[in-house]
Sequence to fold (620 residues):
Amino acid sequence: MAKKILALCGGVGGVKLALGLSKVLPSKDLVILVNTGDDFVYHGLSVSPDLDTVMYALAGVNDEIKGWGIQDETWKFLNVLKKFEKESWFQLGDKDLLTHIERTFLLNEGVSLSKVTKKLAYNFGVHSSIFPMSETPVSTYLSTNKGEMSFQEYFVKFQCKPIVNDIQYLNNKEAKIPELLEEMIVNEIFSGVIICPSNPYLSIDPILSIQPIKNFLMNRKIPVLAVSPMINSLSVKGPTVKIILELGKTPSTEFLLGHYEEIIDFLILDERDKFSGSRYTNIQQVCINILMRNIEDKKLLAEFCLKLLQ
Amino acid sequence: MAKKILALCGGVGGVKLALGLSKVLPSKDLVILVNTGDDFVYHGLSVSPDLDTVMYALAGVNDEIKGWGIQDETWKFLNVLKKFEKESWFQLGDKDLLTHIERTFLLNEGVSLSKVTKKLAYNFGVHSSIFPMSETPVSTYLSTNKGEMSFQEYFVKFQCKPIVNDIQYLNNKEAKIPELLEEMIVNEIFSGVIICPSNPYLSIDPILSIQPIKNFLMNRKIPVLAVSPMINSLSVKGPTVKIILELGKTPSTEFLLGHYEEIIDFLILDERDKFSGSRYTNIQQVCINILMRNIEDKKLLAEFCLKLLQ
Fold:
């Protein structure tokens, strides 16, 4: 029976590896499980930023410079919004808008988020399976020195400036994982799991906060690897290191090993980050270039991960 | 006490006179009551074509050549829609989209259509009162040789080609007129009513199908005039004459007089259409140029109507 690879990922960082995997695996063999903790409703539109980033990247229509959205985007709608509405901090492009309008429309019709995602991905010619981590809303919520706020307020509206004290994943206990994913887990269809280099707190932990997914990974029937989101103890992009520090931890390989202790067998990391005195001796540290500057880097890292899981 | 003028109108044709009225009357003295029988939900968005046409015209942002939508519009969103969805016949522009998104958002929040309309008009700097004919949906529905269809399907999707056998205004009995309009009627705040040169069947009759509005006009406490939508027995624009013929009537002044018999005191018409042998002797036919080619024509006709109502 054909075995599939399950990749967990968030937005910008993780999607690079997800794209690499989509280039080296047949589409039927790849399942990408995406963080939806950043999802929010904006002017009545259901927005799923990470699902869209993955979809646009796999479709080859993504804006590589910005890291999100569609390439050659225009902003007529946003300009009208900025003129008329106070809440105009989230950037919705003219070409990007249909995704949110159709998602909102279909969700209101009672279609599940995973089916909506499949439909949208199909529109864009994407045939790998992209699953939301939950059919129901699970929201990443941050306690900061500027008050409590949703992920998008923190990330976009306040540009990651507030100091984070605590992070919660609201309604994670009521989460409903996609039925098809549940079937794949029950039928032992996966041969390995890859945690993409996404922010542990903001992109991966929301997924792991859902018990059936956590249980599946802790089961240890199949190998699980994580790719470090840091190089030389620095974030490749985004607030990873900033948040680790604010939560009183040290951004290091030892931190990552501890963070993923219960679920991973391998940590793929940059040579400079290798830590030989680790207490987590059950996790194998494997060094390779993890900075993905172009599609070749993405494919090379993807192939390396797949070999390790064999 | 200041008296107001009530203008009934639909889209393209009638809005020309509504604009003229807005230029010659102080905004506090003009109330425009707009057909919402064309309203529909498109990809989950609540679209009110006539309300928007009136709003954009009064704001001076309308596309005068097309007769609807916003000037200097772009179509990135529509191009994506056309690529992905079968139902892409209705033209939503990038600048126009916010209107529909905000309307949908606010209606879903429980805000009434008249309050939504006020908010949107305010955005665009429009201070005359624009009222929907009903807070609740009343839908113009056509029986044709191609089957039953909504107004937008007939008008946009099938480009007025089907032959019309019958027209209904669904849910008109449950219509709820805007509370503020009701108060104005009760408080006898209007000194006259103008039926703009819109299609009688498709733009004016939906409004008249709402009993409290019909009753108010039949009351005859104040003068009511209609401006003919025809010149030399031809439609100025749109399918007016075609539909009159398909419904077995003769497109003529006599038809219009009969159609509005119960409610009007004056019919303003082109010299060529004057009919001296009319059986409707209680309605005065008044001739003047009713072709509005530019803003001066619109203002002249508006002033003429206002004088007649004095």
